[in-house]
Amino acid sequence: MGLLRAAGVVYKPVEQLDLGPDSNEIYVEADIKAPRMGGLLAKIFAWILESRIFGALAFYILKRLNRVHKFISNATVEEPPMFVPLHPYVDLDEQEVIEIDSDASPAERVQQAMNCLPLTSENSLDAFKFSCFRRWTIADYSRAYRNGEITPLKVAERFIYAVHESSSRPLSIAFFINYDAEDILRQATESTLRYERGAPISALDGVPIAVKDEIDCSPYPTTGGTKWLHKVRPCTGDACCVARLRSCGAILVGKTNMHELGATPSGINPHYGPPRNPYDPSRISGGSSSGSAAVVCAGLCPAALGVDGGGSVRMPASLSGVVGFKPTFGRIPHSGVLPLNWTVGMVGVLAGTLEDAFIVYAAISGHLPSHEPTTLPPKIHFPLLNSTNPISNIKLAIYGEWFNDCNEEIRLCCSNAVQLLCERYNWKTVEVTIPELEVMRLAHYVTIGSECSTALSSHLENLGRSEFGWDARVVVDIYGAFNSNEYIKAQKLRYRHMQIHNKIFAKADVIVTPTTGMTAYSISKNALKTGELDYVNGGIVHHRLQKTKGFLRHTR
């Protein structure tokens, strides 16, 4: 293929880039050259990629058409590679925060988080009986339990009934891959007894929380959305983040559905069914943490855990209308999580409210186990959400072309939100240019693909691909087509874009953009049995999320 070698970009030094609003850096839109595939077409495409005769040619064409050769493979990048997104801790002078003792237990951190929240009215259950749909918050559960208005056992019984009803026809939402009614009732009974004794462990005691099936949680196997992974990697106990929730008294209600191996943003799983969007069951809830988003959206749990390597918490949260939070790399221990993408994938939180995401984060964050790579652990600061002092002088960085690269409804909604923040708190917007966003997306894709392929390589040698869904099979084939040169170039670009973002954060406190460029799209019938490859819609959704903390580590 040497004669057909595509010319590569020569990247100029970061110091020469103009990041101001009048920069001549060109905004490059995502232009993904791949058809939407499901059903028979997905099967045919998988056979082509795995063919000894046509596979190499197909991979070459895909890389060339999607500008991997131009921006990655044949590019000249002077920066050194950065393999793990860790930086020395910088002690910022932040407003309205308190420093938390790094040795505090999860339950103590939950209490400190609760102390940071504004006081809420003491509404009783009667106040909600005749109102429209309303999600219960963690504070609602804790207050109702303390007041004796309801018990964790009664909540568990209703939860089990609701999951059964919504998983049956005509809804068939498929929230969970595994849930054990007996185990849920056991946990709820123990929590109820603690409240009867007047000794709940924390505000999370008795609160139902779901766990993405990429995270170990006893007594369930960890499937990663597959039909085989739990057979070759048995779950031997709770992941660190799950153990911390359990130590706070939370009821772990099961393993939520997900896209097989977290492969695409639709969240559709051909083995366990599609976790449908509770707002409209004909549409996706988003992936790959699709079940976690759906169970929170439906109000069955105030919060759930997900894993986010390139938007897999934030995308389904956006498409399902809930809060999605992906912490900075290294803030939450990764032990007990499937090692599919170890430098971009982090445990995240999906919740009905920002406050609930904060409470769960307080419980699961903290010191890392000694075997995980890290610099000196950063200090833990919690925001004083109950403070009456305004947070002043906040600068919101906006890259206009990127911000507006979405459908009109989303653009207007997000523009109005920014305007409201600025008017209410007297914050300012700063126009910036963030160059090479499409380059960053491709570098991220090479990184996450290479790491996932490496993690699965020994299993693929033993199992082959016959047990994969057809969509995941195609994705794994593509992941395996990246070579060491492309991986190293991607890590050089990671370091480069770290420096670009550091320069932007010298001008502003936050980069503001819509989370996804479109709303939830419809589930096609032929995707139900084979899964779905929709790189065009997926690219519109992904075009933002792969540029943030999935690939880079934010410094603020």
TrEMBL record:
Q: One MF term in GO for this entry? A: catalytic activity
Task: Tell me the ranges covered by the Amidase domain, including all copies.
Answer: 178-526
Q: Please give the start and end residues of each transmembrane region.
A: none
Q: Which domain of life is it from?
A: Eukaryota
InterPro entries associated with the record: Amidase, Amidase_dom, AS_sf
The annotated region (Disordered) lies at: 265-286
Q: What is this protein called?
A: Amidase domain-containing protein
Native source species: Gossypium darwinii (Darwin's cotton)
